Amino acid sequence: MSGTCWTTTGGSRDGRGRWWRSGSTGREAVRRFGIRAPFHRGLSGGSGSDRARRPVRCIARRRSVPTAELFGALVRVQSEAGRLWRVGGVKFFMDATVEGGTAWLEHADCHGEGTEAFWPAPEAYTAAVHRLHRAGVRTATHAIGDAAVRHVPDTVEALGESGRLRHRIEHIETVPNGLAARFAELGVIASMQPTHTAYTRADHSDEWSKRLGDERAGRAWRCRDLRDAGAYLALGSDWPIAHYDVRQVLATARLRRLPGAYDTEPVTAEQALTGLMALEGCTSHAVVAAGEQHVAGRIAVGYRADPTAFGVDPVAAPADELGEALVRLTVCGGGVVHRG
Fold first, then answer.
1. Contact 125, 92 (CB under 8 A)
2. H helices within 79-206, ranges in order?
């Protein structure tokens, strides 16, 4: 199940706690990450490679707060690619985290924090996205707070029809009412991590919910609202923040709790996805987010041979059972890399 998985280069911490230098190329990012691909958990796309012994498909985005001097380099690096990896855009940060008081919120949290964007001048972010768009570069924007999430569609709207399905928002932890429809209307792609709901509690006793208050905590991870509005919704794990196991992602998207956590009350249970929606989030919708819907995301003649076979039906099997399902086969680039 290749889905869409990313590395991020340029001042970003890797899986071993080291920082990539700001000038890292896409090739260096892939080499430095160096993880062992978790094929036994059904992934044929991942965040790095273990050399030729364990190939894994990877897309790297250059993380940046671009200056005028950097724009040329950001565009040039998009041509870097290998057999199973390529550079595929630029990642921006509109904010950081709710718990840290650094998510950009429309109203301050309970500590009076969260009223500022990561970009001191949000209009500069808008100008950067527009300039990269004109150069043919896709963007992904980390936006967690409601003000940050609202700003990105406003930015894309000004691009007109050419902006459709070119730009995505990562995380989208709390969404104002009525905003889900704008994702579909403007072709802004949502990218969310169902397993992040495990860090919150349905009774709002966790730090995330306390900071936001009941109203905004009740708008947590609105996956179903986005899908029902007609938006594309890519699903992932945000590893190493949460576990990379795609079975957990698929199951939690349906359960709104981790599989096997029977005593845990689901978080915003009305936002649960169907089995088909969850599977699409890891396949056909994920490849739209990567701009690869014409070569990947389904099993068909002429498409990439990156399938995963589970021991149960990922759509129809009970979600708790799916969380522990045997992965029978993982294929990457036409080669069998796991049999179970």
1. yes
2. 122-134, 146-157, 180-186
What the block records as the tokens of 102 is 């650094």
Residues 78-92 as b/e (b if ≥16 CB within 10 A, e otherwise) read: bebeeebbbbbbbbb
pLDDT above 70: residue 21: no
**DSSP per-residue letters across 277-321:** HHHHHHTHHHHHHTT-TTTSSS--TTS----EEESS-TTTS-HHH
Residue type, 216: R
Cα(261)–Cα(78) distance, integer angstroms? 42
240 preceded by cis ω (within 30°)?
yes
- 71 by DSSP, 3-state: which? helix
Two tokens at 214?
A: 């009941």
d(CA 156, CA 187): 9
Element at 61 (helix H, strand E): strand 58-63
Q: Which residues contact 118 (CB under 8 A, 6 or more apart)?
A: 93, 94, 95, 96, 102, 104
At CA 305, angle to CA 323 and CA 282, rounded to 5?
35
Model-level pTM? 0.87
Q: pLDDT of 89-135, one tens digit each?
A: 999 999 999 999 999 999 999 999 999 999 889 999 999 999 999 99
How far is it, in rounded angstroms, from Cα 139 to Cα 66? 12
Note the pLDDT of residue 40. 56
